């Protein structure tokens, strides 16, 4: 840590010599560690890798990705505020995870403990089947589930997760009953669907892109049709009021100063504005959103409200 | 995972060289795990667990150089088989990943668990208790199925469960350290310089040619299974090698065939694991996932089309993997030779702090989480105490590694079977692959039973000839106390399980009940004098030095996040140096020791902080 202090002193001396205020140089000061609360290979990891190179181009500092998986992300989030709040360590955050986990159990943190700085993309829910599935449409799934309540198995990643929520909303909206089968991570759900262990899968558009050779998408939970799947209807078109998915962003420890939060928010915003970044993300099925630090409170309040009712239902099943 | 840190370097390299680098590091790391397993009895990854079974006994008796050379040959052979199958048969073999469903994973985990029976020859009941305890450890944290929080005792830091690598380091290495300071003897038998013993090793390998081929194939095929393959493959290869071998009684006592089996199979999983990663876009292990991420950043889309697209990058990558595997031969032989010489010749007063420091850093660097270090030390002490009572570490580790795979596989089969109204069909009846695995399980289980019966008959015959010796019954006190503790744990498990949802409680009920019955049985057996110690159980006695060592390690783990890694480590290393020093310490020698310790701690610290950029906790000092 001595090295860092020395470097800071040299930096300060240089600034004084130049006689500039140098606010733009204040952050980041040295390499930034980006903690991903999940294992490598998932959406959180891949998008962080996409940001990594551009962060360096933009700030001249390295963005170092570290994985701290466990308890569906809670392992990392419960330790977030114990990290130094100098902006040199930042953490990925996910919705609905950080809202649902504290509502349904005691994960060692509260939703308010997490200082979100920027929400940069979301992955819309998608209902998928494998290529040779008898289900050609959402209506086929509904009919099958009506004929045999609980007989249709729907795979998804983890319990009380975005996929679990999607299944719950689908059951609420259509009045049918499916059996939700949780897996560890998205990769395992893909094997389960393609290998025929589950009948349908709650995934994201990103999963659908990755597995487009062996699966079909029945519907996507967006307002308008997804540009990569122009022939696939939205749930709304089918009369099912379902728009949602998993949102991903970046958070900092609560002790982080306001200026650093804003600076970081600006940097992530600039990366989001990079046309090559947008193209890379959209080609993979991600939908970019821009919720900067200034608008975070309103956004979170709206999401919390949306998830509260679902949390009640999930709790009732426990 | 050093590999994850190095990914950004590949962005600026051209795609092929970057990928070759990552592949080489991955395969090298799997092979490198053999060194620690053989020389210090500590598997750095689950895939090296079985290497300790025979590697460490060989090193103890002075054959460490031969063991390392054997491991090198086996790793290169296995790595090549895996890589060649990856290049030639990928698209066909990938279907295997899809044919294995939750049910098969459950049976596969059971097959791995049957190895407990093999490993606990001294006392099967104690081995089974250890296995149940391991499964209990695997259930700590948030349940994947049901979503309940289980057995965390209210500690948020336990929500993520017990990290397997941290547990491996603690359970295997701490008892070794405590044993090292218990006696003034050298850690390993000193051996004269004998070169690489390459020809001797080649001879043994040739004699084991069928073992090598079988193990490499098991490694590749099981390695294809996403999630489970890497850790299970070497266990299954080991069990099969033991079953088929003429010297099967020597397995676990330093049989070269055991090392050949595990090391060839675990390096074969590297090629195997890439098969579903590249063909299906489903990464088998975390390093596979890192490499898949790096591929995606380079704009290469993995999937079936990769092999038809005519993009050369993927073939360049595979060829690079072959070259990297071949390079392990010269590099491994030279490094291995010096590592062995170093470990045998370095004085204990230096070896103890060095190994201790590596366990601390190793468990910390996994996730840069100080909590893992505490888990490592605590489990190490538990493992040592269990070893004193005759409960070996390996059954516990097997339970820990395989418990989650078994539980989730079974629970999913239950849920899916329930939804389809045909539970037995889902679990076994309609699943031919499961029949095959079940047959293997039965075969593995029957063999030791037959042998045991034969041995018992022989022993009975002897007694009949010489007349029964009615000695006084020796109560196995340590085993008695240990079983009582496990019984208490079982009761606590059952009470806790009653507050969980059905899906999350089913396995705790089953395991808790089994643990309770087994503990009761062992209490009775201990009272009747049937102690017995698992093959590799039997920790060193608890000496004052051992106590100081354990206390120092515990203090180290607890204090370093607050005081700073460098300062705490320096103090702890000096304490451990004094603990490991037997006999008088002369002034010049003390000075030399202190200087070496300072250099060592500085080197590790700088590597961690500057080269690997592992974020250290904010602390008082540094």
TrEMBL record, chain A:
<comment type="similarity">
    <text>Belongs to the UPF0065 (bug) family.</text>
</comment>
<dbReference type="InterPro" id="IPR005064">
    <property type="entry name" value="BUG"/>
</dbReference>
<dbReference type="InterPro" id="IPR042100">
    <property type="entry name" value="Bug_dom1"/>
</dbReference>
<feature type="signal peptide">
    <location>
        <begin position="1"/>
        <end position="26"/>
    </location>
</feature>
<dbReference type="Pfam" id="PF03401">
    <property type="entry name" value="TctC"/>
</dbReference>
<keyword id="KW-0732">Signal</keyword>
<protein>
    <submittedName>
        <fullName>C4-dicarboxylate ABC transporter substrate-binding protein</fullName>
    </submittedName>
</protein>
């Amino acid at each position: 840590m001595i090295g860092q202090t020395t470097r800071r002193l040299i930096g300060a001396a240089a600034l004084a010599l130049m006689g500039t205020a140098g606010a733009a140089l204040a952050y980041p000061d040295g390499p930034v560690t980006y903690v991903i609360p999940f294992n490598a290979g998932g959406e959180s990891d891949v998008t962080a890798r996409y940001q990594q190179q551009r962060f360096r181009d933009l700030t001249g500092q390295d963005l170092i990705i570290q994985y701290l998986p466990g308890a569906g992300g809670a392992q990392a989030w419960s330790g977030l505020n114990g990290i130094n709040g100098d902006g040199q360590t930042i953490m990925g955050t996910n919705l609905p995870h950080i809202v649902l986990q504290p509502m349904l159990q005691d994960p060692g943190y509260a939703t308010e403990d997490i200082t979100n700085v920027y929400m940069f993309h979301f992955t819309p829910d998608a209902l998928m089947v494998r290529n040779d599935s008898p289900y050609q449409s959402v209506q086929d799934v509904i009919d099958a589930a009506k004929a045999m309540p609980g007989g249709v198995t729907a795979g998804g990643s983890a319990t009380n997760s975005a996929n679990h929520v999607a299944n719950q909303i689908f059951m609420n909206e259509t009045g049918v009953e499916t059996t939700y089968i949780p897996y560890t991570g998205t990769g395992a759900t893909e094997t389960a669907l393609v290998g025929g262990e589950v009948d349908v899968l709650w995934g994201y558009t990103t999963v659908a892109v990755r597995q487009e050779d062996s699966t079909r998408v029945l519907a996507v939970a967006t307002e308008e049709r997804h540009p990569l799947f122009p022939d696939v209807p939205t749930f709304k078109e089918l009369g099912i009021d379902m728009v949602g998915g998993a949102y991903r962003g970046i958070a900092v420890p609560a002790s982080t100063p306001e200026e650093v939060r804003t600076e970081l928010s600006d940097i992530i915003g600039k990366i989001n504005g990079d046309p090559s970044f947008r193209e890379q993300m959209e080609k993979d099925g991600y939908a970019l959103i821009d919720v900067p630090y200034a608008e975070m409170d309103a956004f979170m309040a709206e999401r919390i409200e949306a998830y509260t009712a679902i949390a009640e239902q999930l709790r009732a099943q426990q | 995972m050093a590999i994850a840190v190095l990914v950004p370097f590949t962005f600026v390299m051209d795609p092929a060289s970057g990928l070759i680098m990552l592949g080489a590091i991955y395969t090298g790391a799997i092979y490198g795990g053999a060194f620690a397993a053989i020389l210090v009895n500590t598997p750095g990854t689950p895939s090296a667990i079985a290497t300790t079974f025979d590697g460490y006994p060989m090193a103890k008796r002075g054959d460490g150089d031969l063991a390392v050379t054997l491991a090198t040959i086996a790793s290169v052979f296995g790595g090549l088989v895996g890589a060649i199958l990856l290049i030639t048969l990928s698209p066909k073999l990938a279907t295997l990943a899809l044919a294995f469903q939750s049910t098969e994973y459950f049976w596969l985990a059971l097959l791995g668990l049957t190895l407990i029976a093999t490993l606990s020859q001294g006392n099967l009941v104690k081995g089974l208790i250890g296995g149940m305890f391991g499964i209990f450890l695997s259930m700590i944290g948030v349940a994947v199925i049901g979503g309940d929080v289980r057995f965390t005792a209210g500690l948020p830091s336990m929500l993520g469960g017990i990290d397997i690598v941290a547990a491996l380091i603690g359970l295997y290495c701490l008892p070794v350290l405590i044993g090292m300071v218990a006696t003034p003897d050298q850690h390993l038998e000193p051996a004269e310089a004998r070169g690489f013993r390459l020809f001797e090793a080649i001879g043994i390998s040739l004699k084991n040619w069928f073992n090598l081929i079988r193990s490499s194939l098991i490694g590749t095929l099981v390695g294809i299974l996403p999630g489970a393959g890497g850790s299970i493959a070497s266990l299954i290869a080991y069990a099969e090698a033991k079953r088929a071998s003429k010297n099967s009684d020597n397995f676990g006592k330093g049989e070269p065939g055991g090392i050949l089996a595990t090391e060839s199979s675990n390096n074969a999983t590297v090629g195997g694991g890439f098969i579903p990663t590249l063909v299906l876009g489903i990464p088998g292990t975390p390093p596979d996932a890192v490499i898949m991420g790096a591929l995606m950043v380079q704009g290469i889309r993995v999937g079936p089309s990769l092999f038809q697209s005519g993009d050369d990058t993927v073939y360049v990558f595979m060829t690079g993997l072959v070259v990297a595997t071949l390079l392990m031969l010269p590099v491994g032989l030279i490094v291995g030779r010096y590592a062995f010489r170093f470990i045998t010749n370095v004085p204990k007063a230096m070896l103890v702090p060095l190994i201790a420091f590596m366990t601390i850093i190793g468990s910390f660097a996994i996730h840069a989480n100080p909590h893992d270090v505490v888990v490592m030390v605590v489990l190490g002490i538990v493992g040592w105490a269990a070893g004193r009572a005759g409960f070996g570490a390996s059954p516990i580790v097997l339970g820990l590694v395989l418990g989650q795979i078994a539980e989730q596989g079974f629970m999913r089969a239950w849920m899916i079977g329930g939804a389809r109204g045909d539970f037995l069909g889902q679990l076994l009846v309609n699943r031919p692959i499961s029949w095959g695995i079940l047959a293997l399980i039965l075969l593995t289980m029957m063999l030791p039973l037959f042998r045991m019966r034969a041995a018992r008959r022989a022993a009975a015959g002897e007694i009949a000839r010489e007349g029964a010796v009615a000695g006084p019954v020796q109560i196995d006190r340590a085993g008695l106390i240990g079983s009582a503790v496990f019984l208490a744990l079982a009761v606590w498990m059952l009470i806790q399980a009653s507050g969980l949802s059905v899906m999350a409680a089913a396995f705790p009920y089953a395991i808790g009940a089994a643990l309770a019955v087994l503990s009761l049985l062992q209490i009775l057996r201990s009272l009747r004098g049937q102690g017995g110690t698992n093959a590799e159980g039997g920790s060193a006695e608890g000496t004052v030095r051992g106590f100081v060592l354990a206390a120092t390690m515990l203090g180290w783990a607890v204090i370093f996040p607050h005081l700073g890694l460098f300062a705490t480590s320096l103090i702890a290393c000096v304490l451990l140096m004094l603990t490991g020093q037997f006999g008088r310490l002369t002034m010049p020698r003390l000075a030399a020791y202190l200087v070496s310790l300072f250099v060592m701690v500085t080197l590790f610290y700088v590597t961690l902080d500057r080269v690997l950029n592992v974020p250290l906790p904010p602390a008082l000092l540094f």
